[in-house]
Amino acid sequence: MDLFVHLETFVAVTEEQSFSRAADLLGIAQPLLSRRIKTLERELGGDLFDRSRRQIEITRFGSLLLPHAQDVLRRAEQLRNVARSAQASAVQVLGVPPDCDPPALARVIRAAADRGVAVSVRELPALARSDALADGSLTLALVRVPVDTADSADLDVPLGLAGAMPRGGIGGAVAHLESLRPRRGAASNADPALLVTPEDDLPQFVEQLRRAIARAGLPEERVKVASSTAAALAETLAGTGLLLCTEQFARRNQVTWVRLPDIPVRRGYQLAPKAPDWLLPLLGAAVGSVPEHRQDADDARTRLAVQA
How far apart are CA 156 and CA 268, in angstroms? Predict the structure, then answer.
């Protein structure tokens, strides 16, 4: 018995609630579909459908098995997608955050080519990278993980506030949240929003930021999730927003950047699935962090790639 074909038939009948419509959907004759269902029922040891009524209904036994059948088919399709990608090309598709440093990403591509690996870089926000890795459209990805637990992250990236000067309202090496309180007598919309990019649009991250600014006496609505990294940067350059970003990103786009000592806002990344050690420091340079616990002192080729 071809289990996948029979499970596909079972799911199709359930969704269509009709043997004939399911047969049309699958492009097979109805007698063949009926035989597949009976074969599957014998294999599984129970009736999947109640055929005693005009419109067939799934049995309790069938309802218990349905989500497992759907999961098997979904995983099989993911496997096929990965296999098709592997057959079509030897290119490894790497998912990275949208605000990476382009020259550093170029060094990733060059270092991979030196090792006989073709890498294609794809920029996606954090949640989209996780989904793309799960469905097989990415081979590798930097996925977000908490940084408050030891060894939970391969890369630890500090964030700060960036703003256009002088209208951005920030200066010096650090900025305390209290300094961003609304100015007395100013209009309610006069103070710049605290902009979060889609890369940081994660419930735990945004909630932590909102709690911190509330403790500092700022209205929580000052936190605004931008539609894209480019849109957030545009508001920052226009002086209407303060952007939460890496120092590397701020320098590259010529905006002032300061640390936020009041809150330890950081990004944590893991490279999934596990990849060669030479790749991690290069990605650390691309996202604005080089891992402290990975020295790679013995890998001369990695040092040359970073310095190129």
Answer: 5
